[in-house]
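Weekly structure sync, notes
Attendees: PL (lead), two postdocs, one rotation student
Agenda item 3: pending single-chain targets
PL asked that the sequence for the first pending target be pasted directly into the notes so everyone works from the same version. It is reproduced below exactly as submitted, 504 residues in total.
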Amino acid sequence: MEVFEYDNVKIYNLSCGKSLPEWLSERKRRALLKKDVDLRRRIELIQDFEMPDISTSVKVTPDGQYIIATGIYKPRVKCFDVNNLSQKFDRCFDSEAITFELLSDDYSKLVFLQCDRYVEFHVAHGRHYRLRIPKYGRDMKYFLPTGDLFIVGVTSDIYRLNLVRGQFLTPFVSEASVINKCAINKEYSLVMCGTKEGKVECWDPRCRNLIGTLDVALNCLSKMENVTSENFPSITALNMDGPLHMGVGTANGMVLLYDIRSSEPYMVKDHMERLPIKDIEFNKKENIVFSMNKSILKMWDKNSGKPYANIETSSELNNLCVVPDTGLLFIANEKPKILTYYLPSLGPAPKWASFLDSLTEELEESNVESIYDDYKFVTRSDINALGLDLDDLVKNNLLRAYMHGYFMDARFYNKIKSAAKSFAFKEYRQNRIKQTIESSRRAKIKLPNLPKVNQKLALKLMNSKSNVLKDDRFRKLFLNEDYEIDENSEEYRLINHVAKREKN
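Predicted structure, written out during the meeting:
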């Protein structure tokens, strides 16, 4: 566990700490746990709370007993039972899940929107049914009063799939070209849709009409100087805060809070990074807003906009899940581990993790090493730079293939690297000695001023007859390039051969 402070707000990183690779044998795992104190002391809130490569989304079921997460690779969904703090099941998909909805209070009814235009329904025992939609989808919400599943995407149509009748209903036709997000106002039974054109449309499924439009882009453009197609404030995040308040995130990194009775925002927060806002959540008890882009999660007061805390990671963030009425957060990201943070100031720990409250009271700040500390990830170029033979290392089981590289024992890597550094230093030292000797020789030997033409002949004549270069009769021989002696010519070779014979 790692703890850090932001303006007197303590944030506990429960996913930080040493982790063992899956390919280690059970015997090796036990040996490492026995000899490594850090591994024994690490906190594993939920066992194997990770994906093989990347986690894309994570949600808690309404009854609070299960955590559902999707990721790759292979595309899959995992369900975790919080009562046992372990994985309940793991299922694979044919394609990646963009988002999913919980149709029941537990894990028994799920629906997944996939990137290949398929909508897949799952029940307790596995996949139940799979159907295709006309256009690619981007978001999906379940409307409980009518049993309709609303699906939006790269079209102006808002698809309505009635789960009671098991058929598509006549879609709502939006004024937008693309709809990025949708949300449900449960108190007033309204469907809110965020469009590419920077508007929020409000639909009433009871009368099947558009009852209102909010131009969010207009409020953003008044605060922007240079507007282009790349930084246009399209809607990328949308969420309701109770019956009357709504949070909207844009593609240019701005978060706007609205009272739905007014067309003007009562709070505008700029992330100052020009990155699309991915998620917006609310903590009603402390009046805190969570707004997240791919690089940072910001927490701030919804009335004053004052920063409360920030969470930054080395990996890109994909999806935020706030456990209701607690201070626990889950973040899906571009690494295998699903990030878990606990902020005691925002609320207590869930009942199934009540030990965190007593543990965090006594925990002091400590430096925890990063993932797979006993192993070093190396690529082919790293191995070649160390002067090692890749085939020999693989044959001797000194490397373990992983993605685009290999895992190597950290101790072995450090030894090889230190040896390579010593050889490099010796070579560098020898080169410096040679350079010093050559520079000292040049300083001692004073070379005469030689002409530009026929330098070898001039040097030979200077050693025998020093006055030849000063003689006006021979000056053109060393000034005019037409008199340059070509040692590669046939005439020079014949004359030089005769001269050598006469000398012998």
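Discussion points:
- DSSP finds nine helices and 32 strands in the chain.
- The chain has a mean pLDDT of 80.
Action: rotation student to compare against the earlier draft before next sync.
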